[in-house]
């Protein structure tokens, strides 16, 4: 685990710079490209951490989201944002971030963080040891998300189904006005 | 929406089949190699989105009509739930009751393969549908909507 730390820190710095550019730039298209760069760097970071499953999912979703967001921002004529940023929002977010750090220090301060690459293995130890004999699935990730934690996946599928349902209801091409159908293309 | 240039359309025709095959591979071998229903479904959806962007709406909807997309989306979600209910035969919800087979073979691990296929149909068709809805969505002014009595 010691050898991959410089690569991870490089990726982390790259992601932080990309996020700052995405927030601070005045052009919507540049912001979209910066967010996607952060996402691709995250998928490479997952590869370095030895999680190819998450890396594939992250990469694929990132490509899809990039296409959708570019498609969405190109349709808008005026992509430059003129309005000034609210200072109250900045102060509030700084306060909440400080509270997060404070509570984290309160919780982890006495016990200390586990070493990098050596996580706490309480429940996951059971999954790793009994994954193959219990489910016969060679990919441990699939055996966890579809067998040990099937309820999680059911909830995730429900969230996706509901959100797509809502998006289609809002963006559909035909509408109804007091009973009769109206096409809005 | 209209399509793109001849170069893009030719390359798309050449590539799109391979993308669908790769997505099916990711789905079917999700319990043996990295991947799974979600990633494979998104890859298949990306193939149809490529068709939609390169050829325009008519060709993409002739391959996967909107009604069929809605049907696949809902039936995928219901199939996932149905396989989970099927576990009640063995005793409890989400129980893996199908034959486990041999590890490291394609038909192993019981109902995990079926879950993967159901999720792939659900995710792929729903993401294609939402992209189609976004791509054909036109930003309309508030006044025009009032004039059309849509609000």
Short descriptors:
heterodimer, A: 185 residues, mainly alpha, two-stranded antiparallel sheet, 7 helices, B: 151 residues, 6 helices, flat
What report would you give on this structure?
The complex is a heterodimer of chains A (185) and B (151). Chain A has a domain at 121-174. In chain A, 72% of the residues lie in helices and 4% in strands. Chain A contains seven helices and two strands; from the N terminus they run H-H-H-H-H-H-H-E-E. Chain A is extended. In chain B, 67% of the residues lie in helices and 0% in strands. Chain B has six helices and no strands. Chain B has helices spanning 6-28, 37-55, 57-63, 66-86, 111-135, 142-147. Chain B is flat, with a radius of gyration of 19 Å. The two termini of chain B are 25 Å apart. Chains A and B meet through helix 3, helix 6 and helix 7 of A and helix 2, helix 4 and helix 5 of B.
Q: Please state how the strands of the largest beta sheet of chain A are arranged side by side.
A: 1-2
Strand content of chain B: under 5%
- Classify the beta-strand content of chain A into a percent band: under 5%
- Integer tally of domains of chain B: 1
Give the SSE layout.
The complex is a heterodimer of chains A (185) and B (151).
Chain A: H1 5-24, H2 28-48, H3 52-74, H4 87-111, H5 123-135, H6 140-148, H7 150-171, E1 174-177, E2 180-183
Antiparallel strand pairs in A: 1-2
Helix pairs in contact in A: 1-2, 2-3, 5-6, 6-7
Chain B: H1 6-28, H2 37-55, H3 57-63, H4 66-86, H5 111-135, H6 142-147
Report a brief summary of the structure.
The complex is a heterodimer of chains A (185) and B (151). Chain A has 185 residues and is mainly α.
């Amino acid at each position: 685990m010691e050898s991959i730390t410089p690569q991870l820190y490089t990726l982390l710095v790259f992601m932080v710079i990309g996020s700052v550019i995405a927030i601070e730039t005045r052009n919507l298209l540049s912001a979209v490209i910066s967010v996607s760069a952060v996402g691709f760097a995250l998928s490479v970071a997952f590869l370095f951490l030895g999680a190819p499953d998450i890396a594939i999912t992250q990469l694929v979703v990132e490509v899809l989201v990039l296409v959708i967001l570019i498609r969405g921002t190109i349709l808008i004529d005026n992509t430059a944002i003129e309005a000034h940023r609210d200072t109250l929002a900045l102060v509030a977010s700084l306060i909440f971030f400080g509270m997060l750090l404070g509570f984290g220090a309160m919780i982890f301060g006495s016990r200390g963080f586990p070493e990098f690459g050596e996580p706490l293995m309480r429940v996951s130890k059971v999954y790793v040891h009994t994954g193959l004999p219990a489910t016969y699935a060679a990919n441990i990730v699939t055996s966890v998300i579809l067998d040990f934690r099937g309820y999680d996946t059911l909830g995730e599928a429900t969230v996706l189904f509901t959100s797509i349902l809502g998006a289609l209801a809002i963006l559909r091409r035909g509408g109804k006005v007091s009973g009769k159908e109206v096409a809005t293309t | 929406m209209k399509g793109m240039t001849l170069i893009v359309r030719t390359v798309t025709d050449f590539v799109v089949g391979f993308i669908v095959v790769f997505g099916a591979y990711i789905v079917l071998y999700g319990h043996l190699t990295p991947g799974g229903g979600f990633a494979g479904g998104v890859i298949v959806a990306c193939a149809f989105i490529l068709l939609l962007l390169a050829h325009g709406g008519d060709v993409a909807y002739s391959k996967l009509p909107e009604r069929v997309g809605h049907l696949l989306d809902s039936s995928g979600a219901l199939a996932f739930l149905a396989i989970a209910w099927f576990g009640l035969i063995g005793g409890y919800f989400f129980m893996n009751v199908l034959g486990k087979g041999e590890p490291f073979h394609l038909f192993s691990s019981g109902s995990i393969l079926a879950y993967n296929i159901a999720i792939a149909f659900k995710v792929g068709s729903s993401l294609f549908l939402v992209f189609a809805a976004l791509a054909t969505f036109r930003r309309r002014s508030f006044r025009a909507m009032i004039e059309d009595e849509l609000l």
